[in-house]
Amino acid sequence: MDQKKRVVGILGGGQLGRMLAEYANRLGITIAILDQPNNPAAEVTTGPHVQGNFKNAEAIIKLGSGVDILTVEIEHVDCDALERAEKELGKPCHPSPNTIRIIQDKFLQKQVLKNGGLPVSDFDELPAGGEVAAIEALAPSYGFPIMLKSKTLAYDGRGNRVIRDSSDIASAVEALGGGLTKGGPGLYVEKWVRFEKELAVMVAKSVTGEVASYPTVETVQKDNICHIVIAPAQVDGAIAAKARQIAEASVGAVGGAGIFGVEMFQLENGDVLLNEIAPRPHNSGHYTNEASHTSQFEQHLRCILGLPLGSCDLKVPAAAMVNILGTGSGDSGMEETLIPCVRALSTPGATVHLYGKKECRKGRKMGHVNIVGNSMEEVLKRVAEITGEENNASWSNLAPQVAIIMGSDSDLPTLKPAAVILKQFGVPFELTIVSAHRTPDRMMEYARSAADRGIKVIIAAAGGAAHLPGMVAALTPLPVIGVPVALKVLDGVDSLHSIVQMPVSSRFVFECRWVRELIGPLQRGIPVATVAINNSTNAALLAIRILGAHVPLYLQKMATYMNSQKDEVLTKVEKLEKVGWEAY
Ligand code: ADP
Ligand code: MG
């Protein structure tokens, strides 16, 4: 570590500054804060506290003169003063003042991202004084609703107004300050995005040029404020990978070093659009404190000090973050606000973070709770316990863990029992038709992408020559369980033999001795587990046992299921003894 560059000055002393300081303390890095007195960060910092405003040039220069390097926990700062600190005091600021300047104007930010070739929703600037007329002119091509946004000083939805129809236009413009000519911030409009989910990715970019990104997460907003974050996002792995790629590229487009929070929209067709970037630690990255190898706060310090970056990987299978937002003011407001935190204290896997804010107000971010667990189902159950809300993220919303595939819809009756078992155990699954003969390309694509999409076990049913399980097993490293399906002839024994001899024991192979001799040795190395003919129930139970090897919740459920089976038999034994075999 460069011992000389150890005093970091942060513009802003809110919760993000406080958590940066907590991680800095552990690394022996001194933090100095510029903010008003009694801010959450100053309570835990070891360095000087410059009392003043982070928009005030003099205060920024004062902070700069007492530190080695400057950074921000909020983007609404005086960038000219930061440039002066760099030039006159030789104190670098990361991210660079220019990056912050681009990001603090949401319209300029969108332009830079669009010019960088990144996917954003359509947007247009509104001329000062002519906002209402401009929106009216755009309305036919935009369609309602239209999102009206302030270019600057926007956060937690405060710079946004939804225009539902023409009668809303003037009042929405007024509500956001009336535009530049009336002394409000400049305004722009965005086309409404009908998103399926909101996704976010934290991207770390070091002054050394090293770049790393955290997994894609899902954010759930309530009243425009982040309510819950789910990590990893319960989306197709291909979508998660796309979001991460877009996030890294967008951080490249705005330049600068540090940690960045990138907010995105996922559309129904799988497309991902950028929403906005924050040049600092972000609410959607709070989960990293307990769930990741390296917290976003520590990663930011590593980025700006040129230290090697830490792993961005999750160290638990599933995590969530719940924001603790003020429900009211005064002592009673505070007490009510903290109820979820009290519940969290007795919830396994939950960690409470409070920001030390003395005043509680409705909607104010007072703290957050991170929850980790062995499966998303377990984590969401704990989230529901803490928030007191219904666990509405039911099994069907979670990313599938098991894939049930069949060669033809005629196999569906045979596979229904597997689906019933998985549903009963709360294991998210998908069920689809993939034919080795009729859709070979689809089968290849499906099997090759299954692991990346988050699937853990594949159940494949097939009748007759029964290629599907073996072919799929040859194309994926995932465990495959074959279900031999009985057809009208041969009673399914042909399917059973085919599957146990997988992957190359199709009837074709059996019939050609030379082929059998040539590829016989290859039959070892690509195993397919097989259950009894038509017994998809056992295939599902085996899949759950495989998942249970690393998800204790599934093992517990399996033990309960086995006990209930035992009880069923014992009841019959009892009845048989009581009534005798003749009357039974
Ligand atoms: P803030 O700076 O307050 O976070 P955002 O621009 O991120 O402002 O908007 C807040 C929320 O409003 C987003 O998280 C999203 O739920 C919604 N939102 C923003 N832009 C759009 C849009 N163009 N279409 C639909 N919803 C949007
Ligand atoms: Mg936002």
UniProtKB/TrEMBL annotation:
One of its GO terms (biological process) is 'de novo' IMP biosynthetic process. One of its GO terms (molecular function) is ATP binding. It catalyses: 5-amino-1-(5-phospho-D-ribosyl)imidazole-4-carboxylate + H(+) = 5-amino-1-(5-phospho-beta-D-ribosyl)imidazole + CO2. Residues 110-305 form the ATP-grasp domain. The keyword Nucleotide-binding applies. Its EC number is 4.1.1.21. The keyword Ribonucleoprotein does not apply. Keywords: ATP-binding, Decarboxylase, Lyase, Nucleotide-binding, Purine biosynthesis. Pathway: Purine metabolism; IMP biosynthesis via de novo pathway; 5-amino-1-(5-phospho-D-ribosyl)imidazole-4-carboxylate from 5-amino-1-(5-phospho-D-ribosyl)imidazole (carboxylase route): step 1/1. Pfam families: AIRC, ATP-grasp, PurK_C, RS_preATP-grasp-like. InterPro entries: Ade2_fungi/plant, ATP-grasp, ATP-grasp_carboxylate-amine, ATP_grasp_subdomain_1, PreATP-grasp_dom_sf, PurE_ClassI, PurE_dom, PurK. In the C-terminal section; belongs to the AIR carboxylase family. Class I subfamily. HAMAP family: PurE_classI (MF_01929), PurK (MF_01928). This is Phosphoribosylaminoimidazole carboxylase. It comes from Rhizophlyctis rosea.
